[in-house]
Amino acid sequence: MEVCYQLPVLPLDRPVPKHVLSRRGAISFSSSSSLFGAPDPRQLSQRRGAISYDSSDQTALYIRMLAPLGGCGSASVSAAPERRVHRLLSFQRYLHSSRLLRGVPQQIPLHILDEDYTGQAKCMLEKVGNWNFDIFLFDRLTNGNSLITLTCHLLNQYGLVELYQLDMVKLWRFLVMVQEDYHSGNPYHNAVHAADVTQAMYCYLREPMLSRSLTSRDLLLGLLAAATHDLDHPGVNQPFLIKTDHYLATLYRNTSVLENHHWKSAVGLLRETGLFSHLPADDRLNMERDLGSLILATDISRQNDYLSRFRTHLDQNDLCLSNASHRHFILQMALKCADICNPCRPWELSKQWSEKVTAEFFQQGDIEKKHKLEVSPVCDRESSTVGNIQIGFMTYVAEPLFAEWARFSDTRLSQTMLGHMGLNKASWVGLQQEQISGSEEAESATAAAATATAAQQEGNALAAARGTSSKEISQGSRES
């Protein structure tokens, strides 16, 4: 069984002490010669994000995530005294961490907020089913605890806590650990994104086609899958993990690498907190399996497979939501829609998400350039822009999916989402055209200036040759 080391909770902007081996969730490793060697406390292993590297390893490529791109040197550890480190099982994590005491609800810093803030947050929750719900504002009003607050509220609103006899301390501890295991340093794949997806999932669960058919188990799975669907995301994509020979890519055989890790991380937290420990063993295992099936459906590389199956069902009109497997498939499609619904939000929200996801793409591209790797598509800040990335994403990914979802659930919400996406796409096209025309004008001005400079230089050269100045030549030309 994998053995990992406990990492004391430290601010992300401070270096990890020399005596501590790095760890985050289930992603952790250190070696003297390869990615898969046994950890050695005597060596320095550092990490930012979810990818570690060892300063003494010269044979494997270790990528330091989320660090300043200028880099900082690794200090020697020869002078550091050896200290005892705690060994934890892979999914045990750091139970005795000081931060939030690993899930004790009294430690959530909501009490430090002004009553006006908490009051506004409660008012927002009363309208949590609105499509224009501002998750960024809600996150500020909850002091960065939007995922915990939102998910707990929705589970209570559906009566799932009481129905499944969930222990509130265990539930709160589980949600705290889920929020902690999202990387706040990721511009996009962080806990706010998970909260946004959870809120979108709730909107879909309320649609007539689903609300009439889904069982309480479906609702519980849908909300938990939304909250954990990107758990412990490292801020890079699957091709990056594969080409850097990351151990997760090997573990999952280069197939749905991130999604498998999100699922296993969620299962680890469920087991660690014992949230479902009171349920029969078969029910727990089935719950974990179905949770994984939902999370794995968010793999964007399998988009066409799910879309084709969805389209076939709609063409044949054979979806029967009294069938458990059909309901589960619709939950998969709902989660897929929730995961990539940013282009369907109002422009003020959609634009923020577009900028955040592009920043994460460019961050990966910068790392790839730094380590002489082939830059992944849309990750090169020199050849891509927010606008052209979003236009392409809407055209080839979002529009086909949401068009089929509107066929399945032809409601006001579906039409609203398609309307927002059309307006947002037009806005990006307009911004692109402005940038192009602006650059063309700049190029024309530059070319004109260059032509004038060249003419001036030629005039000076001619004047020098004839013993006259270019000014005199110019005056003579006008007189003639």
What does this protein structure show overall?
- The chain is mainly α and 480 residues long.
- The protein contains 18 helices and four strands.
- The chain has helices spanning 115-125, 135-141, 146-157, 160-163, 168-180, 191-205, 208-211, 216-228, 238-243, 247-251, 257-273, 281-296, 303-316, 324-339, 347-370, 386-408, 412-466, 470-479, and strands at residues 3-5, 45-48, 51-54, 87-89.
- A two-stranded antiparallel ribbon has the order 1-4. A two-stranded antiparallel sheet has the order 2-3.
- Helix 3 (146-157) runs parallel beside helix 6 (191-205).
- It is globular and about 70 Å long.
- The N and C termini lie far apart (95 Å).
- Mean pLDDT is 79; it is low at 1-111 and 461-480.
The level of helicity is 55-70%
Question: What strand order characterises the main sheet?
Answer: 1-4
Radius of gyration: 27 Å
Query: pLDDT under 50 segments (min length 5)?
Result: 1-111, 461-480
Gross geometry: globular
| Sheet/helix structural class | mainly alpha
Assembly state of the chains shown: single chain
Order of helices and strands: EEEEHHHHHHHHHHHHHHHHHH
N-to-C terminal Cα separation, in Å? 95 Å
**Share in β-strands:** under 5%
Major sheet: 2 strands, antiparallel
Report the mean per-residue pLDDT as an integer. 79
Could you write a compact summary of the structure shown?
The chain is mainly alpha-helical. It is built from 18 helices and four strands. The strands form two sheets. Strands 1-4 form a two-stranded antiparallel sheet.
